[in-house]
Design brief:
elongated; two-stranded parallel ribbon; Outer membrane efflux proteins (OEP); alpha+beta; single chain; 4-stranded antiparallel β-sheet; transmembrane; 6 strands
Length: about 425
Protein backbone atom coordinates (compact mmCIF):
# COMPACT_ATOMS: atom_id res chain seq x y z
CA UNK A 1 0.00 0.00 0.00
CA UNK A 2 2.95 2.36 0.57
CA UNK A 3 3.77 2.17 -3.12
CA UNK A 4 0.21 2.91 -4.25
CA UNK A 5 0.40 6.69 -3.87
CA UNK A 6 3.83 6.77 -5.50
CA UNK A 7 2.47 4.93 -8.55
CA UNK A 8 -0.44 7.39 -8.81
CA UNK A 9 1.97 10.33 -8.65
CA UNK A 10 4.26 8.81 -11.31
CA UNK A 11 1.31 8.21 -13.64
CA UNK A 12 0.08 11.76 -13.14
CA UNK A 13 3.52 13.17 -13.95
CA UNK A 14 3.79 11.03 -17.07
CA UNK A 15 0.36 12.14 -18.29
CA UNK A 16 1.25 15.80 -17.87
CA UNK A 17 4.58 15.79 -19.71
CA UNK A 18 4.25 13.04 -22.31
CA UNK A 19 4.96 13.85 -25.97
CA UNK A 20 6.90 17.01 -25.04
CA UNK A 21 10.57 17.75 -25.60
CA UNK A 22 12.86 18.02 -22.60
CA UNK A 23 14.50 21.42 -22.04
CA UNK A 24 17.41 21.35 -19.59
CA UNK A 25 18.64 24.38 -17.65
CA UNK A 26 21.90 24.30 -19.62
CA UNK A 27 20.04 24.29 -22.94
CA UNK A 28 17.85 27.18 -21.80
CA UNK A 29 20.89 29.28 -20.91
CA UNK A 30 22.62 28.45 -24.20
CA UNK A 31 19.54 29.50 -26.18
CA UNK A 32 19.32 32.77 -24.23
CA UNK A 33 23.01 33.54 -24.79
CA UNK A 34 22.46 33.07 -28.51
CA UNK A 35 19.12 34.84 -28.96
CA UNK A 36 18.40 37.31 -26.15
CA UNK A 37 18.23 40.87 -27.41
CA UNK A 38 19.80 42.46 -24.31
CA UNK A 39 22.85 40.23 -24.70
CA UNK A 40 23.07 40.89 -28.45
CA UNK A 41 22.92 44.66 -27.88
CA UNK A 42 25.57 44.50 -25.14
CA UNK A 43 27.76 42.37 -27.44
CA UNK A 44 27.63 45.00 -30.19
CA UNK A 45 28.34 47.78 -27.69
CA UNK A 46 31.43 45.87 -26.54
CA UNK A 47 32.55 45.52 -30.18
CA UNK A 48 32.10 49.27 -30.69
CA UNK A 49 34.30 49.98 -27.65
CA UNK A 50 36.89 47.57 -29.02
CA UNK A 51 36.90 49.26 -32.44
CA UNK A 52 37.39 52.68 -30.80
CA UNK A 53 40.75 51.67 -29.32
CA UNK A 54 43.49 52.97 -31.61
CA UNK A 55 46.33 55.47 -31.74
CA UNK A 56 44.55 57.35 -34.53
CA UNK A 57 41.43 57.83 -32.38
CA UNK A 58 43.69 59.07 -29.60
CA UNK A 59 45.18 61.73 -31.91
CA UNK A 60 48.70 60.28 -32.18
CA UNK A 61 48.90 59.99 -35.96
CA UNK A 62 49.37 62.76 -38.54
CA UNK A 63 46.56 63.93 -40.80
CA UNK A 64 46.97 64.17 -44.58
CA UNK A 65 44.45 66.18 -46.61
CA UNK A 66 44.08 66.87 -50.30
CA UNK A 67 42.60 70.25 -51.29
CA UNK A 68 41.29 71.71 -54.54
CA UNK A 69 39.90 75.22 -55.04
CA UNK A 70 38.72 76.60 -58.39
CA UNK A 71 37.26 80.15 -58.62
CA UNK A 72 35.98 81.95 -61.72
CA UNK A 73 34.88 85.61 -61.82
CA UNK A 74 33.31 87.72 -64.55
CA UNK A 75 33.31 91.44 -63.67
CA UNK A 76 33.22 94.95 -65.14
CA UNK A 77 36.54 96.44 -63.98
CA UNK A 78 37.93 99.98 -63.89
CA UNK A 79 41.55 100.71 -62.89
CA UNK A 80 43.23 104.12 -62.41
CA UNK A 81 47.00 103.95 -62.56
CA UNK A 82 49.55 106.19 -60.80
CA UNK A 83 49.96 108.48 -63.84
CA UNK A 84 46.23 109.08 -64.01
CA UNK A 85 45.61 106.72 -66.89
CA UNK A 86 42.29 104.93 -66.57
CA UNK A 87 41.63 101.53 -67.97
CA UNK A 88 38.26 99.89 -68.25
CA UNK A 89 37.15 96.44 -69.33
CA UNK A 90 33.71 94.92 -69.27
CA UNK A 91 33.25 91.22 -68.57
CA UNK A 92 36.82 90.90 -67.35
CA UNK A 93 37.69 87.34 -66.43
CA UNK A 94 39.56 86.52 -63.22
CA UNK A 95 40.25 82.82 -62.64
CA UNK A 96 42.23 81.02 -59.96
CA UNK A 97 43.13 77.39 -59.33
CA UNK A 98 44.73 75.99 -56.18
CA UNK A 99 45.38 72.37 -55.31
CA UNK A 100 47.77 70.32 -53.21
CA UNK A 101 48.24 68.11 -50.19
CA UNK A 102 48.84 69.17 -46.59
CA UNK A 103 50.08 67.18 -43.64
CA UNK A 104 49.60 68.19 -40.03
CA UNK A 105 50.95 66.30 -37.02
CA UNK A 106 50.60 67.15 -33.35
CA UNK A 107 53.84 65.96 -31.80
CA UNK A 108 53.21 67.24 -28.27
CA UNK A 109 50.01 68.20 -26.48
CA UNK A 110 50.93 67.89 -22.84
CA UNK A 111 50.64 64.06 -23.05
CA UNK A 112 46.88 64.37 -23.57
CA UNK A 113 46.95 61.90 -26.47
CA UNK A 114 48.52 59.21 -24.29
CA UNK A 115 45.93 59.73 -21.56
CA UNK A 116 43.22 59.55 -24.24
CA UNK A 117 44.63 56.26 -25.55
CA UNK A 118 44.67 54.77 -22.05
CA UNK A 119 41.11 56.00 -21.58
CA UNK A 120 39.98 54.26 -24.78
CA UNK A 121 41.43 51.00 -23.45
CA UNK A 122 39.55 51.50 -20.18
CA UNK A 123 36.35 52.13 -22.14
CA UNK A 124 36.98 48.86 -23.96
CA UNK A 125 37.16 47.10 -20.59
CA UNK A 126 33.98 48.92 -19.63
CA UNK A 127 32.20 47.50 -22.68
CA UNK A 128 33.41 44.00 -21.87
CA UNK A 129 32.29 44.35 -18.26
CA UNK A 130 28.87 45.67 -19.29
CA UNK A 131 28.53 42.66 -21.60
CA UNK A 132 29.44 40.35 -18.71
CA UNK A 133 26.89 42.14 -16.51
CA UNK A 134 24.18 41.68 -19.15
CA UNK A 135 25.05 37.99 -19.50
CA UNK A 136 25.13 37.36 -15.74
CA UNK A 137 21.82 39.17 -15.22
CA UNK A 138 20.08 37.43 -18.09
CA UNK A 139 21.40 33.98 -17.15
CA UNK A 140 20.12 34.55 -13.61
CA UNK A 141 16.72 35.60 -15.01
CA UNK A 142 16.57 32.51 -17.21
CA UNK A 143 17.51 30.16 -14.37
CA UNK A 144 15.04 31.80 -11.96
CA UNK A 145 12.23 31.43 -14.49
CA UNK A 146 13.34 27.91 -15.40
CA UNK A 147 13.29 26.68 -11.81
CA UNK A 148 9.99 28.44 -11.25
CA UNK A 149 8.71 26.37 -14.17
CA UNK A 150 10.10 23.24 -12.48
CA UNK A 151 8.14 24.17 -9.39
CA UNK A 152 4.99 24.79 -11.45
CA UNK A 153 5.41 21.44 -13.21
CA UNK A 154 5.78 19.63 -9.88
CA UNK A 155 2.72 21.45 -8.58
CA UNK A 156 0.79 20.30 -11.64
CA UNK A 157 1.72 16.71 -10.90
CA UNK A 158 0.71 17.16 -7.25
CA UNK A 159 -2.71 18.55 -8.14
CA UNK A 160 -3.22 15.93 -10.82
CA UNK A 161 -2.47 13.30 -8.19
CA UNK A 162 -5.08 14.91 -5.96
CA UNK A 163 -7.63 14.66 -8.78
CA UNK A 164 -6.82 10.97 -9.30
CA UNK A 165 -7.24 10.25 -5.58
CA UNK A 166 -10.49 12.25 -5.44
CA UNK A 167 -11.85 10.23 -8.36
CA UNK A 168 -10.94 7.06 -6.51
CA UNK A 169 -12.69 8.40 -3.43
CA UNK A 170 -15.81 9.31 -5.44
CA UNK A 171 -15.90 5.87 -7.04
CA UNK A 172 -15.52 4.21 -3.62
CA UNK A 173 -18.24 6.39 -2.09
CA UNK A 174 -20.59 5.66 -5.00
CA UNK A 175 -20.00 1.90 -4.72
CA UNK A 176 -20.67 2.01 -0.97
CA UNK A 177 -23.82 4.05 -1.57
CA UNK A 178 -25.12 1.49 -4.11
CA UNK A 179 -24.75 -1.36 -1.63
CA UNK A 180 -26.26 0.69 1.21
CA UNK A 181 -23.13 1.23 3.27
CA UNK A 182 -22.93 5.00 2.72
CA UNK A 183 -25.32 7.90 2.40
CA UNK A 184 -25.92 10.10 -0.62
CA UNK A 185 -24.30 12.96 1.33
CA UNK A 186 -20.96 11.13 1.28
CA UNK A 187 -21.15 10.85 -2.52
CA UNK A 188 -22.04 14.53 -2.89
CA UNK A 189 -19.18 15.59 -0.61
CA UNK A 190 -16.77 13.49 -2.64
CA UNK A 191 -18.07 15.11 -5.86
CA UNK A 192 -17.65 18.62 -4.45
CA UNK A 193 -14.10 17.90 -3.35
CA UNK A 194 -13.29 16.43 -6.77
CA UNK A 195 -14.64 19.55 -8.48
CA UNK A 196 -12.49 21.69 -6.19
CA UNK A 197 -9.38 19.69 -7.08
CA UNK A 198 -10.16 19.94 -10.81
CA UNK A 199 -10.59 23.72 -10.48
CA UNK A 200 -7.24 24.03 -8.73
CA UNK A 201 -5.63 21.93 -11.46
CA UNK A 202 -7.08 24.13 -14.22
CA UNK A 203 -5.78 27.28 -12.51
CA UNK A 204 -2.37 25.70 -12.08
CA UNK A 205 -2.28 24.81 -15.80
CA UNK A 206 -2.88 28.46 -16.60
CA UNK A 207 -0.06 29.55 -14.29
CA UNK A 208 2.21 26.91 -15.82
CA UNK A 209 1.40 28.12 -19.35
CA UNK A 210 2.10 31.73 -18.35
CA UNK A 211 5.49 30.74 -16.91
CA UNK A 212 6.38 28.91 -20.15
CA UNK A 213 5.48 32.09 -22.06
CA UNK A 214 7.78 34.14 -19.80
CA UNK A 215 10.65 31.71 -20.33
CA UNK A 216 10.05 31.70 -24.10
CA UNK A 217 10.29 35.49 -24.07
CA UNK A 218 13.67 35.35 -22.33
CA UNK A 219 14.86 32.73 -24.82
CA UNK A 220 13.40 34.70 -27.78
CA UNK A 221 11.38 31.70 -28.92
CA UNK A 222 7.90 31.32 -30.28
CA UNK A 223 5.54 32.07 -27.39
CA UNK A 224 3.55 28.88 -28.15
CA UNK A 225 6.58 26.55 -27.84
CA UNK A 226 5.91 23.89 -25.22
CA UNK A 227 8.31 21.55 -23.45
CA UNK A 228 8.92 19.85 -20.14
CA UNK A 229 11.67 20.67 -17.70
CA UNK A 230 13.86 18.62 -15.41
CA UNK A 231 12.27 17.21 -12.29
CA UNK A 232 15.47 17.05 -10.26
CA UNK A 233 16.91 20.30 -8.95
CA UNK A 234 20.49 20.18 -7.68
CA UNK A 235 21.19 22.74 -4.97
CA UNK A 236 24.73 23.69 -3.99
CA UNK A 237 24.58 23.52 -0.20
CA UNK A 238 28.27 24.21 0.45
CA UNK A 239 28.50 27.94 -0.26
CA UNK A 240 30.39 30.02 2.31
CA UNK A 241 29.92 33.73 2.87
CA UNK A 242 33.65 34.47 3.25
CA UNK A 243 34.48 32.89 -0.09
CA UNK A 244 31.52 34.57 -1.77
CA UNK A 245 32.61 38.03 -0.60
CA UNK A 246 36.16 37.46 -1.78
CA UNK A 247 34.93 36.25 -5.17
CA UNK A 248 32.41 39.08 -5.51
CA UNK A 249 35.05 41.76 -4.95
CA UNK A 250 37.02 40.32 -7.88
CA UNK A 251 34.22 39.42 -10.28
CA UNK A 252 31.06 41.39 -9.50
CA UNK A 253 30.32 43.44 -12.66
CA UNK A 254 29.06 46.47 -10.72
CA UNK A 255 32.27 46.61 -8.68
CA UNK A 256 34.37 46.21 -11.81
CA UNK A 257 32.43 48.99 -13.57
CA UNK A 258 32.94 51.29 -10.58
CA UNK A 259 36.70 50.63 -10.67
CA UNK A 260 36.83 51.32 -14.41
CA UNK A 261 34.78 54.52 -14.01
CA UNK A 262 37.28 55.75 -11.41
CA UNK A 263 40.15 55.07 -13.78
CA UNK A 264 38.34 56.88 -16.61
CA UNK A 265 37.79 59.91 -14.35
CA UNK A 266 41.51 59.94 -13.44
CA UNK A 267 42.43 59.93 -17.12
CA UNK A 268 39.96 62.77 -17.71
CA UNK A 269 41.85 64.74 -15.08
CA UNK A 270 45.14 64.06 -16.90
CA UNK A 271 43.67 65.37 -20.13
CA UNK A 272 42.45 68.53 -18.39
CA UNK A 273 45.88 69.12 -16.85
CA UNK A 274 47.46 68.74 -20.29
CA UNK A 275 46.01 72.15 -21.21
CA UNK A 276 48.72 73.74 -19.05
CA UNK A 277 51.37 72.66 -21.55
CA UNK A 278 52.06 73.93 -25.07
CA UNK A 279 50.70 72.21 -28.16
CA UNK A 280 53.34 71.73 -30.84
CA UNK A 281 52.41 70.84 -34.41
CA UNK A 282 54.40 70.09 -37.57
CA UNK A 283 52.97 71.29 -40.89
CA UNK A 284 54.06 70.50 -44.42
CA UNK A 285 52.53 70.22 -47.85
CA UNK A 286 52.85 70.58 -51.60
CA UNK A 287 50.70 73.20 -53.37
CA UNK A 288 50.07 74.45 -56.87
CA UNK A 289 48.47 77.85 -57.55
CA UNK A 290 47.48 79.46 -60.86
CA UNK A 291 45.70 82.80 -61.53
CA UNK A 292 44.46 84.49 -64.71
CA UNK A 293 43.29 88.12 -65.02
CA UNK A 294 42.04 90.02 -68.06
CA UNK A 295 43.01 93.40 -66.60
CA UNK A 296 46.08 94.42 -64.60
CA UNK A 297 49.83 94.43 -64.67
CA UNK A 298 49.99 90.62 -64.36
CA UNK A 299 47.55 88.67 -66.49
CA UNK A 300 48.73 85.20 -65.52
CA UNK A 301 50.78 83.69 -62.70
CA UNK A 302 51.48 80.25 -61.30
CA UNK A 303 53.45 78.74 -58.44
CA UNK A 304 54.15 75.30 -57.02
CA UNK A 305 56.33 73.73 -54.37
CA UNK A 306 56.69 72.48 -50.82
CA UNK A 307 55.97 74.32 -47.62
CA UNK A 308 56.79 73.29 -44.11
CA UNK A 309 56.85 74.74 -40.65
CA UNK A 310 56.19 74.37 -36.99
CA UNK A 311 53.59 75.97 -34.74
CA UNK A 312 53.28 76.14 -30.99
CA UNK A 313 50.48 77.47 -28.82
CA UNK A 314 50.35 77.90 -25.08
CA UNK A 315 47.36 79.06 -23.08
CA UNK A 316 48.55 81.78 -20.73
CA UNK A 317 45.25 82.96 -19.28
CA UNK A 318 41.66 81.92 -19.98
CA UNK A 319 39.75 83.58 -17.19
CA UNK A 320 40.73 80.96 -14.57
CA UNK A 321 38.82 78.27 -16.54
CA UNK A 322 41.81 75.93 -16.30
CA UNK A 323 41.75 76.05 -12.50
CA UNK A 324 37.97 75.54 -12.54
CA UNK A 325 38.15 72.57 -14.94
CA UNK A 326 40.86 70.87 -12.87
CA UNK A 327 38.85 71.39 -9.69
CA UNK A 328 35.78 69.81 -11.29
CA UNK A 329 37.82 66.88 -12.64
CA UNK A 330 39.30 66.27 -9.18
CA UNK A 331 35.81 66.25 -7.67
CA UNK A 332 34.70 63.74 -10.33
CA UNK A 333 37.57 61.45 -9.32
CA UNK A 334 36.59 61.81 -5.70
CA UNK A 335 32.95 60.98 -6.54
CA UNK A 336 33.95 57.83 -8.41
CA UNK A 337 35.82 56.68 -5.29
CA UNK A 338 32.74 57.35 -3.18
CA UNK A 339 30.60 55.40 -5.67
CA UNK A 340 33.07 52.50 -5.57
CA UNK A 341 32.98 52.41 -1.75
CA UNK A 342 29.19 52.66 -1.81
CA UNK A 343 28.90 49.82 -4.33
CA UNK A 344 31.12 47.61 -2.16
CA UNK A 345 28.95 48.36 0.87
CA UNK A 346 25.76 47.58 -1.06
CA UNK A 347 27.27 44.36 -2.38
CA UNK A 348 28.35 43.19 1.09
CA UNK A 349 24.89 43.96 2.46
CA UNK A 350 23.20 42.08 -0.38
CA UNK A 351 25.49 39.10 0.01
CA UNK A 352 24.92 38.93 3.76
CA UNK A 353 21.13 39.22 3.39
CA UNK A 354 20.82 36.72 0.56
CA UNK A 355 23.20 34.29 2.25
CA UNK A 356 21.06 34.32 5.38
CA UNK A 357 18.01 33.58 3.23
CA UNK A 358 20.00 30.83 1.52
CA UNK A 359 20.80 29.14 4.86
CA UNK A 360 17.19 29.48 6.03
CA UNK A 361 15.84 28.03 2.78
CA UNK A 362 18.24 25.08 2.96
CA UNK A 363 16.99 24.33 6.46
CA UNK A 364 13.36 24.70 5.39
CA UNK A 365 13.94 22.42 2.42
CA UNK A 366 15.11 19.62 4.68
CA UNK A 367 12.26 20.20 7.13
CA UNK A 368 9.61 20.29 4.41
CA UNK A 369 11.02 17.11 2.87
CA UNK A 370 10.42 15.33 6.17
CA UNK A 371 6.93 16.83 6.44
CA UNK A 372 6.08 15.63 2.94
CA UNK A 373 7.24 12.13 3.78
CA UNK A 374 5.09 12.09 6.93
CA UNK A 375 2.08 13.47 5.04
CA UNK A 376 2.54 10.84 2.34
CA UNK A 377 2.61 8.01 4.90
CA UNK A 378 -0.43 9.46 6.62
CA UNK A 379 -2.32 9.62 3.32
CA UNK A 380 -1.36 6.02 2.47
CA UNK A 381 -2.76 4.81 5.79
CA UNK A 382 -5.85 7.02 5.53
CA UNK A 383 -6.57 5.86 1.98
CA UNK A 384 -6.47 2.22 3.06
CA UNK A 385 -8.73 2.89 6.05
CA UNK A 386 -11.15 4.76 3.81
CA UNK A 387 -11.34 1.78 1.47
CA UNK A 388 -12.40 -0.49 4.33
CA UNK A 389 -14.70 2.18 5.78
CA UNK A 390 -13.06 2.73 9.17
CA UNK A 391 -12.67 6.55 8.90
CA UNK A 392 -14.95 9.39 7.86
CA UNK A 393 -14.72 11.32 4.60
CA UNK A 394 -13.70 14.43 6.51
CA UNK A 395 -10.70 12.65 8.01
CA UNK A 396 -9.75 11.38 4.56
CA UNK A 397 -10.09 14.82 3.00
CA UNK A 398 -7.95 16.37 5.72
CA UNK A 399 -5.22 13.83 5.10
CA UNK A 400 -5.43 14.50 1.37
CA UNK A 401 -5.21 18.29 1.84
CA UNK A 402 -2.34 17.90 4.30
CA UNK A 403 -0.41 15.93 1.72
CA UNK A 404 -1.04 18.52 -1.01
CA UNK A 405 0.00 21.32 1.33
CA UNK A 406 3.14 19.49 2.47
CA UNK A 407 4.22 18.74 -1.09
CA UNK A 408 3.50 22.32 -2.18
CA UNK A 409 5.58 23.69 0.68
CA UNK A 410 8.42 21.29 -0.11
CA UNK A 411 8.43 22.35 -3.75
CA UNK A 412 8.39 26.01 -2.73
CA UNK A 413 11.24 25.49 -0.25
CA UNK A 414 13.39 23.78 -2.89
CA UNK A 415 12.63 26.56 -5.35
CA UNK A 416 13.51 29.31 -2.85
CA UNK A 417 16.74 27.53 -1.90
CA UNK A 418 17.74 27.28 -5.56
CA UNK A 419 16.82 30.91 -6.23
CA UNK A 420 18.94 31.98 -3.24
CA UNK A 421 21.86 30.02 -4.67
CA UNK A 422 21.38 31.65 -8.10
CA UNK A 423 21.15 35.11 -6.51
CA UNK A 424 24.39 34.57 -4.57
CA UNK A 425 26.24 33.45 -7.68
CA UNK A 426 24.80 36.37 -9.65
CA UNK A 427 26.24 38.75 -7.04
CA UNK A 428 29.63 37.09 -7.35
CA UNK A 429 29.47 37.24 -11.14
CA UNK A 430 29.76 33.48 -11.47
CA UNK A 431 26.29 32.14 -12.30
CA UNK A 432 26.45 28.45 -13.25
CA UNK A 433 23.84 25.96 -14.37
Amino acid sequence: MKQYLFVIFAIATTNLVQAQEMLTAKEAVEIALKNNYDILIATNQAKISEKNVGIANAGMLPRLDATLTKNNNLQNSTQTQADGTQRELNNAKNNSLNYGVTLGWTIFDGLRMFARYDQLKELEKQGETQLKSAIVTKVADVLSTYYDLVQQQQMLATLDTAVVISKQRLQTADNRYKIGKASKLEVLNAQVDLNTDVTNLVKQKQLYANTITQLNELLVRDRTTTYRVEETVHIDSKLELKNLMRLAEKQNPDIQLAIINKRVAELDLKQVKANRYPVIKLNTGYNFAETESSLGFVTQSSSKGFNYGLSATLNIFNGFLQHRNEKIANLQVENTQFLLDKQKQILNTQLTTVFQSYLTNLELKELEAKNEDIARQNLDITLEKFRIGTITTIEFRNAQLNYITARTRHNAARYQAKISEVALKELTGSVTF
